[in-house]
Protein backbone atom coordinates (compact mmCIF):
# COMPACT_ATOMS: atom_id res chain seq x y z
CA UNK A 1 0.00 0.00 0.00
CA UNK A 2 1.31 3.47 -0.93
CA UNK A 3 1.85 5.84 2.00
CA UNK A 4 1.76 9.61 1.86
CA UNK A 5 5.13 11.32 2.17
CA UNK A 6 4.49 14.78 3.55
CA UNK A 7 6.17 17.74 1.84
CA UNK A 8 9.01 19.22 3.89
CA UNK A 9 8.80 22.97 3.58
CA UNK A 10 11.38 25.73 4.02
CA UNK A 11 10.86 29.02 5.85
CA UNK A 12 9.90 30.81 2.61
CA UNK A 13 6.92 28.47 2.23
CA UNK A 14 5.90 29.17 5.81
CA UNK A 15 6.02 32.91 5.00
CA UNK A 16 3.85 32.24 1.94
CA UNK A 17 1.35 30.33 4.10
CA UNK A 18 1.18 33.23 6.57
CA UNK A 19 0.56 35.73 3.77
CA UNK A 20 -2.28 33.64 2.30
CA UNK A 21 -3.80 33.08 5.75
CA UNK A 22 -3.77 36.81 6.55
CA UNK A 23 -5.21 37.65 3.15
CA UNK A 24 -7.99 35.05 3.39
CA UNK A 25 -8.91 36.30 6.88
CA UNK A 26 -9.09 39.89 5.67
CA UNK A 27 -11.12 38.77 2.65
CA UNK A 28 -13.84 37.09 4.72
CA UNK A 29 -13.88 39.90 7.31
CA UNK A 30 -14.59 42.38 4.53
CA UNK A 31 -17.07 40.16 2.69
CA UNK A 32 -18.96 39.30 5.89
CA UNK A 33 -20.05 42.94 6.11
CA UNK A 34 -22.35 42.36 3.12
CA UNK A 35 -25.83 42.17 4.57
CA UNK A 36 -27.52 40.74 1.49
CA UNK A 37 -28.19 37.02 2.31
CA UNK A 38 -28.03 36.06 -1.37
CA UNK A 39 -24.36 37.12 -1.42
CA UNK A 40 -21.82 34.32 -0.92
CA UNK A 41 -18.09 33.76 -1.26
CA UNK A 42 -16.09 30.61 -1.71
CA UNK A 43 -12.48 29.54 -1.23
CA UNK A 44 -10.75 27.62 -4.01
CA UNK A 45 -7.38 25.93 -3.50
CA UNK A 46 -6.45 24.46 -6.89
CA UNK A 47 -3.05 22.95 -5.98
CA UNK A 48 -4.18 22.17 -2.45
CA UNK A 49 -1.54 19.69 -1.26
CA UNK A 50 -2.14 17.36 1.69
CA UNK A 51 -3.43 20.07 4.04
CA UNK A 52 -0.36 19.92 6.25
CA UNK A 53 3.39 19.71 5.82
CA UNK A 54 6.52 19.18 7.86
CA UNK A 55 8.52 22.29 8.71
CA UNK A 56 12.21 21.92 7.88
CA UNK A 57 12.93 24.39 10.67
CA UNK A 58 11.18 22.54 13.50
CA UNK A 59 10.49 19.04 12.13
CA UNK A 60 6.88 19.54 13.27
CA UNK A 61 3.64 19.54 11.29
CA UNK A 62 2.51 22.94 10.01
CA UNK A 63 -0.94 23.55 8.53
CA UNK A 64 -1.06 23.98 4.76
CA UNK A 65 -3.16 26.52 2.89
CA UNK A 66 -6.42 24.44 2.92
CA UNK A 67 -6.28 23.87 6.67
CA UNK A 68 -5.46 27.52 7.34
CA UNK A 69 -8.47 28.54 5.27
CA UNK A 70 -10.75 26.13 7.14
CA UNK A 71 -9.59 27.55 10.47
CA UNK A 72 -10.02 31.27 9.84
CA UNK A 73 -12.33 33.12 12.18
CA UNK A 74 -15.03 34.08 9.68
CA UNK A 75 -15.43 31.08 7.37
CA UNK A 76 -16.12 31.02 3.65
CA UNK A 77 -19.49 29.65 2.52
CA UNK A 78 -17.82 26.82 0.61
CA UNK A 79 -14.34 25.34 0.23
CA UNK A 80 -13.13 23.66 -2.96
CA UNK A 81 -9.82 21.78 -2.76
CA UNK A 82 -8.20 20.13 -5.79
CA UNK A 83 -5.10 17.97 -6.00
CA UNK A 84 -3.73 15.54 -8.55
CA UNK A 85 -2.20 13.23 -5.95
CA UNK A 86 -4.71 10.70 -4.60
CA UNK A 87 -2.83 10.20 -1.30
CA UNK A 88 -2.91 13.95 -0.62
CA UNK A 89 -6.60 13.99 -1.49
CA UNK A 90 -7.16 11.16 1.03
CA UNK A 91 -5.38 13.19 3.70
CA UNK A 92 -7.42 16.29 2.83
CA UNK A 93 -10.60 14.25 3.16
CA UNK A 94 -9.68 13.07 6.62
CA UNK A 95 -8.66 16.57 7.73
CA UNK A 96 -11.94 18.00 6.44
CA UNK A 97 -13.82 15.29 8.37
CA UNK A 98 -17.56 15.84 8.65
CA UNK A 99 -17.36 19.53 7.75
CA UNK A 100 -20.18 20.55 5.50
CA UNK A 101 -19.52 22.76 2.48
CA UNK A 102 -16.08 21.26 1.83
CA UNK A 103 -15.70 19.76 -1.65
CA UNK A 104 -12.59 17.81 -2.58
CA UNK A 105 -11.59 16.86 -6.12
CA UNK A 106 -8.91 14.43 -7.25
CA UNK A 107 -7.51 15.37 -10.67
CA UNK A 108 -5.97 18.02 -12.88
CA UNK A 109 -7.11 21.46 -11.73
CA UNK A 110 -6.77 22.84 -15.26
CA UNK A 111 -9.77 20.71 -16.18
CA UNK A 112 -11.70 20.70 -12.90
CA UNK A 113 -11.51 24.48 -12.46
CA UNK A 114 -12.85 25.18 -15.93
CA UNK A 115 -15.57 22.56 -15.89
CA UNK A 116 -16.75 22.47 -12.30
CA UNK A 117 -15.35 25.03 -9.90
CA UNK A 118 -14.86 28.45 -11.51
CA UNK A 119 -18.45 28.50 -12.87
CA UNK A 120 -19.65 28.44 -9.23
CA UNK A 121 -18.46 32.03 -8.79
CA UNK A 122 -21.24 33.42 -10.95
CA UNK A 123 -21.10 37.22 -10.74
CA UNK A 124 -24.79 37.63 -11.58
CA UNK A 125 -25.74 35.31 -8.70
CA UNK A 126 -23.72 37.40 -6.20
CA UNK A 127 -21.13 34.65 -5.85
CA UNK A 128 -17.48 35.61 -5.32
CA UNK A 129 -14.30 33.57 -4.86
CA UNK A 130 -10.77 33.72 -3.56
CA UNK A 131 -8.71 31.31 -5.64
CA UNK A 132 -5.24 30.16 -4.57
CA UNK A 133 -3.02 28.90 -7.39
CA UNK A 134 0.13 27.46 -5.84
CA UNK A 135 1.82 25.06 -8.28
CA UNK A 136 5.31 23.61 -7.74
CA UNK A 137 6.18 24.51 -11.31
CA UNK A 138 4.75 25.30 -14.74
CA UNK A 139 1.58 23.24 -14.20
CA UNK A 140 -1.06 25.90 -14.71
CA UNK A 141 -2.61 26.82 -18.04
CA UNK A 142 -3.16 30.46 -18.98
CA UNK A 143 -6.78 29.58 -19.79
CA UNK A 144 -7.49 29.50 -16.04
CA UNK A 145 -6.26 33.06 -15.38
CA UNK A 146 -8.03 34.31 -18.50
CA UNK A 147 -11.33 32.67 -17.55
CA UNK A 148 -11.18 33.80 -13.93
CA UNK A 149 -10.34 37.37 -14.99
CA UNK A 150 -13.25 37.51 -17.42
CA UNK A 151 -15.67 36.41 -14.69
CA UNK A 152 -14.94 39.56 -12.61
CA UNK A 153 -15.91 37.72 -9.44
CA UNK A 154 -12.69 35.90 -8.64
CA UNK A 155 -9.59 37.11 -6.87
CA UNK A 156 -6.47 35.11 -7.66
CA UNK A 157 -3.38 34.47 -5.61
CA UNK A 158 -0.71 33.07 -7.95
CA UNK A 159 2.56 31.69 -6.66
CA UNK A 160 4.76 32.36 -9.66
CA UNK A 161 6.87 29.24 -10.42
CA UNK A 162 10.19 31.07 -10.84
CA UNK A 163 12.41 28.09 -10.05
CA UNK A 164 10.99 25.92 -12.83
CA UNK A 165 11.09 28.86 -15.26
CA UNK A 166 14.69 29.77 -14.40
CA UNK A 167 15.93 26.19 -14.48
CA UNK A 168 14.21 25.00 -17.62
CA UNK A 169 13.23 27.91 -19.81
CA UNK A 170 15.28 31.08 -19.27
CA UNK A 171 18.61 29.71 -20.42
CA UNK A 172 21.11 32.29 -21.65
CA UNK A 173 21.30 30.49 -24.98
CA UNK A 174 17.69 29.95 -26.07
CA UNK A 175 18.73 27.46 -28.77
CA UNK A 176 19.56 25.02 -25.94
CA UNK A 177 16.03 25.02 -24.51
CA UNK A 178 13.95 21.92 -25.35
CA UNK A 179 10.77 22.55 -27.32
CA UNK A 180 8.88 20.69 -24.58
CA UNK A 181 9.96 23.31 -22.04
CA UNK A 182 9.02 26.15 -24.39
CA UNK A 183 5.58 24.57 -24.83
CA UNK A 184 5.14 24.38 -21.03
CA UNK A 185 6.07 28.05 -20.69
CA UNK A 186 3.71 29.04 -23.52
CA UNK A 187 0.87 27.09 -21.89
CA UNK A 188 1.48 28.94 -18.62
CA UNK A 189 1.98 32.41 -20.13
CA UNK A 190 -0.63 32.14 -22.87
CA UNK A 191 1.70 32.93 -25.79
CA UNK A 192 5.37 33.55 -26.56
CA UNK A 193 5.45 37.18 -25.38
CA UNK A 194 7.42 36.13 -22.28
CA UNK A 195 10.45 36.23 -24.57
CA UNK A 196 10.09 40.01 -25.03
CA UNK A 197 9.76 40.51 -21.28
CA UNK A 198 12.56 38.18 -20.25
CA UNK A 199 15.12 39.02 -22.91
CA UNK A 200 15.18 42.78 -23.23
CA UNK A 201 18.12 44.50 -24.90
CA UNK A 202 21.01 45.40 -22.62
CA UNK A 203 20.38 48.55 -20.62
CA UNK A 204 16.65 47.81 -20.29
CA UNK A 205 15.30 46.21 -17.15
CA UNK A 206 13.64 42.82 -17.69
CA UNK A 207 11.01 41.09 -15.59
CA UNK A 208 13.37 38.28 -14.64
CA UNK A 209 16.48 40.35 -13.94
CA UNK A 210 19.47 40.84 -16.23
CA UNK A 211 19.61 38.80 -19.45
C1 LIG B 1 3.17 23.56 -3.74
S1 LIG B 1 2.09 22.20 -3.45
C2 LIG B 1 0.68 23.00 -2.71
C3 LIG B 1 0.88 23.45 -1.31
C4 LIG B 1 -0.34 24.10 -0.70
N1 LIG B 1 -0.89 25.16 -1.52
C5 LIG B 1 0.02 24.68 0.64
O1 LIG B 1 0.60 25.78 0.67
O2 LIG B 1 -0.28 24.05 1.66
C6 LIG B 1 1.49 21.84 -5.06
C7 LIG B 1 0.47 20.72 -5.14
O3 LIG B 1 -0.07 20.69 -6.45
C8 LIG B 1 -0.39 19.36 -6.80
N2 LIG B 1 -0.53 19.34 -8.27
C9 LIG B 1 0.45 19.33 -9.22
N3 LIG B 1 -0.09 19.44 -10.45
C10 LIG B 1 -1.44 19.54 -10.28
C11 LIG B 1 -2.53 19.71 -11.17
N4 LIG B 1 -2.35 19.79 -12.49
N5 LIG B 1 -3.78 19.79 -10.65
C12 LIG B 1 -3.98 19.73 -9.31
N6 LIG B 1 -2.97 19.57 -8.41
C13 LIG B 1 -1.72 19.49 -8.89
C14 LIG B 1 0.73 18.53 -6.20
O4 LIG B 1 0.29 17.20 -5.95
C15 LIG B 1 1.02 19.31 -4.90
O5 LIG B 1 0.31 18.75 -3.82
Which helices and strands, and how do they pair?
Elements lengths: L7 E2 L1 H21 L8 E6 L6 E4 L5 E3 L1 H6 L7 E6 L2 H11 L5 E5 L2 H9 L9 E7 L8 H10 L2 E5 L3 H7 L10 H11 L4 H5 L13
Parallel strand pairs: 1-3, 2-5, 2-7, 5-6, 7-8
Antiparallel strand pairs: 3-4
This protein binds S-adenosylmethionine (SAM).
Keywords:
211 residues; 5-stranded parallel beta sheet; globular; binds S-adenosylmethionine
Helix content: 25-40%
Q: Averaged pLDDT, please?
A: 93
**Low-confidence runs of at least 5 consecutive residues:** none
Structural classification: alpha/beta
Number of beta-strand segments? 8
Rg, nearest Å: 19 Å
Task: Give, in order, the helices and strands.
Answer: EHEEEHEHEHEHEHHH
Widest sheet: strand ordering: 6-5-2-7-8
Q: What can you tell me about this protein's structure?
A:
The protein has eight helices and eight strands; from the N terminus they run βαβββαβαβαβαβααα. The strands form two sheets. Strands 6-5-2-7-8 form a five-stranded parallel β-sheet, with helices on both faces. It has a three-stranded mixed β-sheet with strand order 1-3-4. Helix content is 38%, strand content 18%. With 211 residues, it is an alpha/beta fold. The structure holds S-adenosylmethionine (SAM). S-adenosylmethionine binds next to strand 5 and helix 4. Residues 17, 47-49, 64-65, 82-85, 88, 108-110, 134-136, 139 line the site of S-adenosylmethionine (SAM).
Amino acid sequence: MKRLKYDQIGYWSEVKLDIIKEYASAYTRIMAVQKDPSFSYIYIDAFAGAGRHISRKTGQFVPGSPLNALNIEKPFHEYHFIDLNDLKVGELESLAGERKHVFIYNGDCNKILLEEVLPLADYAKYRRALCILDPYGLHLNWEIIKTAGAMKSIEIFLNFPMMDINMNVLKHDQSRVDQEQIDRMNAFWGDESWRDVAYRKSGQKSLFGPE
